[in-house]
What does this fold into?
Amino acid sequence: MRQPNSNKKILSLLSFLYSGGNAKSNVSALTVIDWPEMTALIMKKGLVGHFYSMLYQNPTAAALIPADTMERLKTAARRVAAHNVFYESQCSKILDGLSAAGIENILLKGFSYMQDIYGDTSARGMSDIDLLIRPDDRLKALEYLLGEGYEIYVIPSFKGSREDFPALTDITGETHFMKKSGALTVGVDLHWKMRAEFPMNNYLDLDVL
It folds into this structure.
């Protein structure tokens, strides 16, 4: 028999946890799961914070999961939460700094909707901060981020100067910045064009934002 793919396995578990099944169905559903495999899938999909939060709020279900699995999820979820607190502070600093520099900006993805969808900003691990700015503001944004210690990371082999920045970014419509902060790396993606297939194009008219 063909095994369900990883997305289906995760969705099935989510559906069960949201449904709040009775005790008998809890035992049946949760004891047949390959928990090492499921834990690896949850971590790979970046959902460990969300799953641990759901299980923490459902002690009946949590009691049916192997103790070592719960401990592994707990440790990973705490790591994600600490990481996201750091990212959230950096995001707030950047938004305030850009606004103070007269650069209008919109936060895209990540923190912009995580609270609304999951009810928790530590539900998923953040890997970068996505911001939408006006095309004419990209040089001001460049100067601001460089002043804050960020480095341009368009592609690993890019060695261009600041003068090359406008010409290159006319083509890309975005650029990437990185900054090391202790053991952590902060990534910022600046966007001023949306690719043709971007799902929000029908809702974001860049000419009137």
Remarks:
- Strands lie at 105-108, 129-133, 151-152, 174-181, 184-191.
